[in-house]
Hints:
- By secondary structure, this protein is mostly beta strands.
- The chain has strands at residues 2-7, 10-13, 18-26, 32-39, 46-51, 58-60, 68-73, 78-83, 92-100, 111-112, 116-121.
- The N and C termini lie far apart (40 Å).
Amino acid sequence: QVQLVESGGGLVQAGGSLRLSCAASGRTFSSYAMGWFRQAPGKEREFVATISIRAGSTYYENSVKGRFTISRDSSKNTVYLQMNSLKPEDTAVYYCAAKFGSIWPLSGYNYWGQGTQVTVSS
Length: 122
């Protein structure tokens, strides 16, 4: 079992930055690929970014490439999502997720956090 707790959401103006954190507890953090997803009001949850077990591989949804950076610190059992140049369309609840093994496919995450709200004003 893995428990995930997100933090760092909030209200920011367009063009601003936020850093989300996801603290993991339970089984060995280093055995899990980690991902960030988001869900905007009235829309389905969508993939944002993922990072491999040893942080050797990352992958991003097209709309966030060059603006968002996913990273992980195994010493702190924490994964981060640095979000720069935020846009109003980035407004959503952001969820951290974990799954055992590879980042591929971009599905199959079986552990989820409770989510943190990110609101970007225009």
